[in-house]
Amino acid sequence: MSVSSDATPDLLNRLLQQTAAGDEKAFAQLYERSSSRLFGLCVRMLVDRREAEEVLQEAYVTAWQRASSFDPQRSSAMTWLVTLTRNKAIDRLRQHGTAHFDGDAALDGIIDDTPGPSSQAEQSEQYARLQRCLEELEPQQRRSVREAFFTGCTYHELAERTKVPLGTLKSWIRRGLLQLRACLGS
Amino acid sequence: MNTIDDNDRNHLRYAEYVLGVLDADARAAVAHEVATLDEAAVAVARWQRHLASLAYEAPAQEPPAEIWQRISQSLRLEQARSRPPVLSTTRWWDNLRLWQWIGAGAIGVAAACLVVVLQRPTTPPQEQVHGISLMVSSIHQENGVAGWTATMDLQRKQIVVVPATPSPVAANRSTELWLIPQGGKPIAVGVFQFDATTTLPLSPALLSQLGPTAVLAVSVEPSGGSPTGQPTGPVIGKGNIAGAPEGKDGQPVAHAVEPTGNLDMGALAGKRDIG
Question: From CA A113, how far away is CA A142, in angstroms rounded?
């Protein structure tokens, strides 16, 4: 997966591997080239800016400590960083419990079904492919997969939050995921 | 596609795991597979690759400049070290023998040690002594023996874990430290070496949860730590947290804490009183 024009996947992979070797300069560059992406993700997931800042900080502290577990054969640096950051954000959201969420939220209301303006600038192949495949899903499938991704909710929490029966919601997400797999291939 | 067959179902679990929709039990089960089965790890990595690009739908935002400062300070990187330090460096927590002794005995002794150490001629000026804010925890194992002593330095935002008499842990496993707020889920503090002094940074999230109603716990995890962000292995130790607030005479006071028998994570979270 590539990111903005100033950071090729190869460069980020190399910087993360150098970080694993304890190279502080490489780590600083990695932060410089990836933090706005990850901060955008944190803000979207946590909404509260202050919490987003804290989670971003935790994510990079952990990235430094666990960089040696990055396997470039299996993942790209950006995938690795997004996964780590998202896990930190989910941990934080689950600490709050469901009280954090707006109880009246409906699937249509929360997540805009169209990608945000900045993403139009993203020409990443992987991103474009995922978007094409998402387009092929039924609207509820697409919305519920996105909703799950950005809220970090479990099936139960999502069902409660969206007032959709649990079985229906599971079916939307599962079929959405299977269809995505078929579309994206390996 | 009218039905979901077994093969699909298996693949779905990995996708659901990556998406984060599974509840804690199912999540832990997949995490275990990922840690032990190469096939599961490959499938999960593939789903991570597929779904991570969804993150690009969130508009990129420049984080405030001080975030990097905080990261490099908490990791004590060179860049941070080259800046003028806020506090002079006191290295009393590096005294391994001191902490092994404390860990092996009653934690109440810690109060005396702190007083003694802080009163030594080499201590920093008085105002810094007043500013020091410490919490201590003696982490007991199932056999009742103190495994580690953890000292939380709120100013330095770090926790120092010192082994007392820890039971050995398999070489291909890691010990991970968790903070469990009252009624909350465990929050990862970090992986530490079970038989060596380890210093870990305390994030603002952790600092905000430190207190006498929270407990520390140690679990055994796959090498490198829990892959899920939650404990996946057995809990082998736990300890209450006691503040070392300043007494009337301006000196820190630590409280003795008693271990309780139950090493169950869920029960720990609901725990109210300290000894």
Answer: 8
